[in-house]
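ok so I'm stuck.
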Amino acid sequence: MRPPDECVVEGVLHDTPFSDTYRVIHRADTTFEGKSYPIVSAMPWTYTLSAVQCGKEFPVEETETHYIVDSDFEVPYLEGVTDEIAWIPGEKNKGWAIGENDDPAALIAENGGMRPFVYHVNAGYEYGYATYNQDPLPDDPINFTGFRPTWVVHPEGDGYEMFFLIPEAPDSQGFEWPRHGQGWQLNFGLYVDPEGRVYVPKPERAAVAHHEDGWDDYHACVTINLASAPIPTTRTQFPGNESYYPSETFLPGYASAGAPGHKYWGHKGRTMEEVAVWEDDGAPGLNSPGNYHKPYSGGCDRAGYNFAHAEGFTWPELRAARTAMGDIPTRDQLYKITLYRYLGQEDKTELLGTLSYEQQANQEWIPTGEGPEVHSLNDKNGRFIVNGPVFQDRGDHVFAIIEDL
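replied:
not stuck anymore, here's the structure
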């Protein structure tokens, strides 16, 4: 539930129908077909660090480069410093973006020394922190991007010294660049020592961790929820274990700004706690970690739009097995997405296409797609996609409209 006012950061709306459940922040306004919609960012209070830790105070030691917070292994809230860090609910994880039954104290005791723990951030900032490797890694044809803050802490005498990894030379401090795969090492996140103290860089010193691009003031692509209930969306953690963590919640009657990242959309009306999970929910013999209850993937940002049916939901064998088990989404839980493009130079709006679902006689929900810009990703699976660029220099905008089936 909404915390006391003293724990609500500046800019949060108090008077929406959703303010008791979500941290709703007004970003801008947009107009579609003559009607104005507020563009908001919505994060459940249960995932908002300042709300979860409302009233808590931790002993803090300040150094030249960072704060040492004695939070007993918890993700700490420091006003003005960790405002955009999210709290991830779980039995033992103490807010970190690790397994909900993973105990950071036990992991440090098992592995020894200081260990980095990955945290997640509030909606709109999931992939906001990044560094870019200008040179391809060995046997790697792409320039790898490391997400989230890349700083490390070394013991130095009786204290600890903070190092910042250099994007052009990520191994300059003797640490390999984080790799996705077997045996790779984390060197991003916040470091925690064996006594449970968390090392938080000062914002002015963590230049590589800054959300440099900020919010898209142009709002090249926005999503407007005209359906009957909120729709939670998630991001996958990459590099990492690709678990699902909270992203925007699309609130009825409101618009949401586009944000980059690998996004999956949950059932309409489900809570974020029911959607932002990774545990295998597949039928016996069919591994489907968290995907089956996420009907769409993708989204949009300042560069363009990329909406598709989610691959887990369109897997024919899994779909048939879950239907046979009686695990069938209701009509109220599903929805359709229709995309329109406003052409600034011509001052007109054109239809791009609609993604939806139709229920068959055997109760299976089959993906459908129609429209001039919709094409099939996989004819066998019946997966459709609609994607393309947004030309801001022409004054173009794209609107993704969510509606009930």
